[in-house]
Specification:
The chain is α/β, with parallel strands linked by helices. The chain has helices at 17-28, 54-62, 83-89, 106-109, 132-139, 174-194, 234-243, 269-276, 325-338, and strands at residues 9-14, 32-37, 42-44, 49-51, 65-67, 94-98, 116-120, 127-129, 143-150, 160-167, 216-218, 250-254, 257-267, 292-296, 299-303, 309-317, 323-324. It is built from nine helices and 17 strands. The strands form four sheets. The protein has a seven-stranded mixed beta sheet with strand order 5-2-1-6-7-9-10. Strands 12, 13, 14, 15, 16 and 17 form a six-stranded antiparallel beta sheet that branches. A two-stranded antiparallel sheet has the order 3-4. Strand 12 and strand 13 (257-267) form a beta hairpin.
Length: 347
């Protein structure tokens, strides 16, 4: 049964798994989605095989029309229609956008009867942009959430229609927080749609204007950003390791070997004796950032910037699987004996 007051004609735009989970929830609630928009197929892997994104795969499974324009412009397809004309032909009441990955021009934003709404994984205006989940963890935020906003021509600048907070736990990884926010977003969008009328729109409109002075930009993640700078504090490095788990995953080098770091924990000097015994005396300054302080089955203890140390507990060598330090030392302990510190330029 459709949960809105009147049946809606919805267009859904999104590409990754986050978007697909929300689309599946909307369909499960009985809402009608006439078309799905997602980014063009990509070639992935060593064989460069053409691969469908999660949203497209779900749409095809459900028998929903799929559109994949490279951009919205005046170029025509084999039917002689532009991407704008095709979208207009769906005569949608509402377009729901979730991590689509393409900028929608103002003409598209105004095309559905009630415009376009975006489901964004932060409490706007805190984190606008491509990677709000990871940047919130990396920066040490204690709270994030989901915002549904009315889209305008700016980047995540539209009026906020509904907001649902979510606490960030001290052990949350990017992957864990992603999954928790998906659950919140699914409930939130269906509550929003339950109150939406095909005649009157949403009672949440026009929403609350964002305070631009409070906005931060969550830059897109790149693999090169994942290399660990041991001159940073242990707290900052640990946050980054959690934020970049499960992509792009932080990494460092021991000698010529690259190590992906999946999990680590901050160790204060006061905690060292309790963990490693009364006879253990960690070298203090002038120990340099990146120095390997101790190697045992509990982890690889590393000197960072400042006074704190970082204990690496889950690692992955290139060509191998992720494993705890105890497993890794069974075959690769010599890496850490032959090298006194971590970092790209170490020999």
């Amino acid at each position: 049964m459709i949960s809105s007051k009147s049946p809606l004609n919805i267009i859904f735009a999104g590409t990754p798994e986050f978007s697909a989970s929300i689309l599946e929830s909307i369909l499960a609630a009985g809402h009608y989605v006439s078309a799905v928009y997602c980014q063009p197929d990509r070639r992935v892997g060593r064989g460069k095989k053409l691969s469908f994104g999660p949203v497209k795969s779900l749409a095809l499974e459900k028998g929903i029309a799929v559109e994949q324009p490279v951009k919205f412009n005046q170029e025509t397809d084999e039917d002689g229609l532009t991407a704008n004309e095709k979208l207009a032909n769906y005569n949608a009441d509402l377009m729901i956008v979730v991590a689509y990955g393409l900028i929608l021009p103002e003409t598209i934003l105004k095309m559905p009867k009630f415009g376009c709404v975006n489901i964004h994984a932060s409490l706007l205006p805190r984190w606008r942009g491509a990677a709000p989940i990871q940047r919130a963890i990396e920066t040490g935020d204690q709270q994030t959430g989901i915002t549904i906003m009315q889209m305008d021509k700016g980047l995540d600048t539209g009026n906020m229609l509904t907001k649902q907070p979510c606490e960030i736990q001290s052990t949350d990884t990017g992957s864990v927080l992603h999954d928790r926010l998906v659950e919140i977003a699914c409930k939130q969008i269906n509550q929003f749609l339950a109150d939406f009328s095909a005649e009157k729109g949403s009672s949440y409109s026009p929403g609350k204007v964002q305070d631009n002075e409070l906005a931060c930009y969550a830059h897109k993640l790149h693999k090169q950003q994942a290399e660990i700078d041991w001159a940073q504090s242990a707290v900052d490095i640990e946050r980054k390791i959690r934020a970049f788990n499960s992509w792009p995953v932080c990494f460092t080098y021991v000698g010529e070997h690259r190590l992906r770091v999946w999990q680590a924990m901050v160790i204060n000097n006061a905690e060292v004796m309790d963990r490693f015994g009364q006879d253990f005396t960690p070298p203090l300054n002038p120990s340099a950032a990146g120095d390997i302080i101790n190697v045992d089955q509990q982890g690889i203890l590393i000197k960072c910037g400042g006074e704190q140390l970082l204990l690496l507990t889950q690692l992955q060598a290139d060509g191998s699987r992720m494993m705890n330090v105890k497993e890794m030392l069974n075959s690769k302990k010599h890496w850490f004996i032959e090298n006194s510190k971590l970092g790209k330029h170490c020999e």
